[in-house]
Amino acid sequence: MANPYHMTPDEFRTHGYEMVDWIADYLATIGERQIAPDVKPGDIRAMLPDHAPEAPEGFAAIMADLDQIVMPGITHWQSPGWFAFFPANSSPASILGEMASAGLGVQGMLWSTSPAATEVESVVLDWLVDLLGLPAHWKTTDRGGGVINSSTSDSTHLVLAVARHRAADRGPAEDMVAYASNQAHSSIERGARLAGYGQVRLIGVDDRYGMDHAQLRRQIAADRSSGLIPVAVTSAIGTTATTAVDPVRAVGEIAAENELWHHVDAAYAGNAMICPEFRVYQDGLELVDSYTFNAHKWLLTNFDCNILYVADRRPLIETLSTMPAYLQNAATESGAVIDYRDWHVSLGRRFRALKLWFVLRSYGAEGLRYLIRSHVALADELAARLGADPRFELVAPHPFALVCFRASAGNETTEALAAAINAAGDVAVTPMQLGDDAIIRVSVGQSYTEAEHVERLWNLIDTHTPAIQEES
Ligand code: PLP
Fold it and tell me: Considering the entire predicted model, what is its pTM?
């Protein structure tokens, strides 16, 4: 007898349509919602039963609780008024790709466990090498290759572990050093610590917050002469605080001279490279061993879709490959296939490439360039307004679509302004400390953000910032 607990195909069809309607309604009305929920810790938990249901519940009851229990605790990242952190893009094409992936439910750990999952991923990531102007040898058809992971933190930790493994014959891990700038994302320090490095050196930056490569060179020499083992350096293209860009070529030359693994964290800004005019910021990528960015940030693809490229896939596979008896198969033995389980720590993996494939096909490269360029233009306009108004100071260059500013009147006014903007409810920005300054980060990049939403933000900024008092 068939399992009586399953939905029938017809029930699934009905509820599936309901769910698509629910998502479409959500996206259509999202701009009207208050972005940050009014909940206290434990409020959502208090509405949930202590125990899982023993008997099955109807789909209508589950949907009702989605509305009544879950939605009050949702932060609306997809609101067009979302200027906080970095964006976490979504799009109808991507949602449908996710749905197809869930529907297929395949586990693509080996080529042979679902050949299309591997081959679509390899081809889509090879396409992106061309679309983003990355070095051609990073393709799977050459000596490199790309793989989809969950997050930049995962990818960075992984390559730092691979670099350490590759350097194992140079001495003990506790003598090994990893380098990045003092503006680097915390995932680098954390990844290096987890990978067993003895030291992480955070190098100083110039007045644009890019790594001071002369200081890097001096630090490596000093570490060598005190018996330490420099092993890896990470350059950032687009730091989290201000989207500063490290001098990738200069760092790459230093890395090559000193046999360091050179990793690039382009978590956010990597997406902009779909527009050739931003590629000036990735000059020197041919001197890089690995590179990562999050298509789920700013390429219309739902979380999670982190992409890691390696210039040469052998060190990765040599570090990670094992072949227990239960995974042996003719395709792997033939050497003709990619088994992505050898490219990251987890064995099992979802078919995440499907949503990216849907997005690339549905928008085309031109649709993605349109998105990036329209956001960058909106950010430029906002920066021009702020820069022309004596009440504000831009605190860093804005090469992409993140604008960082402060109130000229000082930290208190800046903090009060950020609080007032966020209290309006339909707009969210990130207040932050940069050195001694309180600043406000405005990241223009949500999938549906248009000029009217930036105008609304500007009106809030304008209204809540007092005029500068003339000296008498
Ligand atoms: N690196 C940079 C430059 C980032 O901005 C971020 C997050 O915004 C990360 C790394 C961490 O990304 P993830 O959340 O994918 O680990």
Answer: 0.96
Distance 336 CA to ligand 1 centre (A): 34
Report domain extents, the chain: 1-36+75-88+364-472, 106-350
Tokens 């390559």 found at? 159
* 451-461 burial: b if 16+ Cβ within 10 Å, else e: eebbebbbebb
- Residue 361: which residues within 8 A CB-CB, separation 6 or more? 93
Ligand 1 environment, Cβ below 6 A = 86, 151-153, 185, 187, 236, 238-240, 265, 267-268, 294, 306
Q: Which atom of ligand 1 is nearest to the CA of 151?
A: 15
Query: pLDDT tens digits, residue range 104-144?
Result: 999 999 999 999 999 999 999 999 999 999 999 999 999 99
Q: Which atom of ligand 1 is nearest to the CA of 296?
A: 15
**pLDDT one-digit tens code per residue, 135-166:** 999 999 999 999 999 999 999 999 999 999 99
For residue 310, what are the β-bridge partners?
Answer: 145, 290
Helices 353-388, 451-463: crossing angle, 10 deg rounding: 40
Query: How much distance in Å is there from the Cα of 153 to the middle of ligand 1?
Result: 7
pLDDT of amino acid 469: 67
Mean pLDDT in residue range 45-67: 97
Tokens of 216: 């890097």
Residues 111-133 as b/e (b if ≥16 CB within 10 A, e otherwise) read bebbeebbbbbbebbbbbbebbe
**Mean pLDDT computed over every residue of the chain:** 96
Say which CATH topology domain 106-350 has.
Aspartate Aminotransferase; domain 2 (3.40.640)
The protein residue with its alpha carbon nearest to ligand 1, atom 12, reads 152
Output the CA 187–ligand 1 centroid distance in Å.
7
pLDDT tens-digit readout, 172-209: 999 999 999 999 999 999 999 999 999 999 999 999 99
Tell me the residue type at 267: A
- 467 has a pLDDT exceeding 90: no
CATH, domain range 1-36+75-88+364-472: 3.90.1150.10
Choose which residue among 205, 211, 240 to substitute to test ligand 1 binding: the one with the highest number of ligand atoms within 8 A of its C-beta. 240
